[in-house]
Amino acid sequence: MLVRDWMTPNPRTVTPDTPVLDAIKLLKDQGYRRLPVLEADRLVGIVTDKDLKDAMPSKATTLSVWELNYLLSKLTVSEVMAKPVITVDADEPLEEAALLMEEYKVGGLPVLSEGKLVGIITITDVLKAFIEVMGMREGGLRVTLDVEDKPGALERLGAAVKPSNIVSVATAGRHDGYRIVVLRITGEGLDTVVDRLRNADEKVLDVRETRPRKI
To answer: In sequence order, what DSSP letters do the residues of 82-105 get, joined into one string?
Structure first.
């Protein structure tokens, strides 16, 4: 899965000279949380709802309403936007975007293709992809195993699972020559698939039955 498969294409943007009040209204009206900032089709920054809220005067200010309105009318996105911008290429694997967001502690990334802004990818998009990868909407059995970390291990799992069908595989937590493997299994023979795995000397740690969920 690539970033382009999960991003929101053609995101709304603002320019550096966009008034902060206009940017706040755009976020509120459209339900966005961040806006890429373009100058002559070149990405120069990104502004979030937090950036804009932090730019608003404190309620403890002694300025009059007229003074506040005057100051806010002069405040532009260029004065509050974040730069340089952390970006990801549209043809990068989705996990690269997730890693960048985790490393830089940001909730979204502008997506570039040949240097041009083509989309935006957020933590919400990554979560949607995670749900898809884990097959959570397909129901069936979620089986967690401790599997030897060596060639052929997954092939043996597949053979033991038949005639049921593995629709999702995830691995993590390598330890002492083993890996935690989570299988999502559907199809025929579900009532005996755990017995088949155990009879094949696989270490079953957890079994959960789940129902299909509509999107």
So the answer is: B-SPP-EETTSBHHHHHHHHHHHT
Q: Which of 28, 32, 24 lies closest to 54, judged by CA? A: 24
On whether both 109 and 200 belong to a single domain, the answer is no
Per-residue burial over 28-61, b if 16 or more Cβ lie within 10 Å, else e, is eeeebebbbbbeeeebbbbbbeebbeebeeeeee
Residues 32 and 56 in one domain: yes
Give me the CATH number covering residue 49: 3.10.580.10
175, with CB counted inside 10 A (0-12, 13-18, 19+), is exposed
Q: Percent of the chain scored above 90 by pLDDT?
A: 69
pLDDT digits (tens, 9 = 90+) for 3-37: 999 999 999 999 999 998 889 889 989 888 999 99
Q: Model pTM? A: 0.81
Co-location of 76 and 147 in the same domain: no
Q: Are residues 65 and 9 located together in one domain of the fold? A: yes
For the cut 50, the answer to whether the pLDDT of residue 59 exceeds it is no
Bridge partners of residue 182, in order along the sequence: 144, 170
CA pair distance 60, 69, nearest whole angstrom: 15
Q: Is residue 114 part of a domain?
A: yes
Overall number of domains in the chain: 2
